[in-house]
């Protein structure tokens, strides 16, 4: 029941967060941490903070592990996601590729919708077949990495110590992902042992899908009024 209420709260907190979502900016306090040169600890902190507070990333991971019961499977899917976002994060910053933040965040929101729809068997009913889930997680990981790379470039990075700082940021992202995922797995472990998990699994994914649609809508609205 506690997990069910938490899922319902995701939908309720999405509206107050709309201002932050539409702003899509780096806080002044984070900007103030950046100076010239190599700052590995700072960038590890910033990467971890972005992932732990990145509700869109965490919602996607929540959908990914929703029906995964073996740690081996969890590790496989999370590794695919990590490979995807690591590739595009490093590429985007090193090449100077800057994607419109509203568009890329709308795609990230859509990834939440996709995984929740996948969890309830929507693709089998709509398309008549099941898309490759592993490939989907990897591909969406690439888009999540572009979002991270776009966010990182908002810091107006100095070329001095750029590569070590980017790697440190990515390490921080992985650490934040482990922290966030650990909390999700612990909560899911308790919920799965309850009698209500089977009854509420479908509705829970519908709520997650709704949150994804809200994220997409906010980002597209931000793109339209920017």
In short:
The protein has 226 residues and is mainly α.
Tell me the series of helices and strands, N- to C-terminal: HHHHHHHHHHH
Percent of residues in helical segments?
A: over 70%
N-end to C-end Cα span: 40 Å
What is the overall number of helices?
A: 11
Catalogue the unreliable spans.
10-24
Profile the largest sheet: none
Question: Count the strands?
Answer: 0
Annotation keywords:
226 residues, 11 helices, single chain, mainly alpha
Would you write up a description of this structure?
The protein has about 230 residues and is an all-alpha fold. The protein has one domain. The chain is about 80% helix and about 0% strand. The protein has eleven helices and no strands. Helix 1 packs parallel to helix 11, helix 4 packs parallel to helix 10 and helix 5 runs parallel beside helix 7. The termini are far apart. About 5% of the residues have low confidence.
SSE diagram, text form:
Blueprint: H1 2-14, H2 18-23, H3 28-33, H4 40-52, H5 55-65, H6 71-95, H7 101-119, H8 122-127, H9 133-153, H10 162-192, H11 196-225
């Amino acid at each position: 029941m506690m997990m069910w209420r938490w899922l319902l709260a995701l939908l309720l907190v999405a509206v107050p967060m709309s201002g932050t979502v539409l702003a899509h900016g780096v806080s002044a306090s984070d900007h103030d941490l950046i100076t010239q040169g190599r700052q590995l600890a700072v960038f590890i902190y910033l990467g971890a903070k972005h992932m732990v507070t990145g509700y869109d990333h965490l919602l996607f991971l929540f959908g990914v592990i929703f029906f995964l019961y073996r740690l081996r499977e969890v590790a496989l899917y999370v590794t695919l996601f990590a490979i995807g976002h690591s590739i595009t994060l490093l590429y985007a910053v090193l090449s100077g590729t800057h994607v419109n933040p509203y568009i890329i965040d709308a795609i990230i929101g859509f990834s939440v919708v996709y995984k929740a729809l996948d969890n309830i068997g929507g693709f089998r009913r709509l398309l008549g077949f099941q898309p490759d889930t592993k490939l989907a997680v990897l591909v969406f990981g690439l888009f999540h990495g572009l979002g991270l790379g776009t966010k990182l470039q908002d810091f107006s990075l100095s070329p001095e110590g750029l590569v070590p700082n980017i790697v440190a940021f990515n390490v921080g992202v992985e650490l934040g992902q482990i922290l966030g995922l650990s909390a999700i797995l612990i909560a899911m472990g308790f919920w799965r042992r309850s009698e209500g998990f089977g009854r509420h699994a479908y509705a829970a994914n519908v709520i997650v899908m709704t949150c994804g649609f809200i994220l997409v809508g906010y980002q597209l609205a931000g793109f339209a009024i920017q």
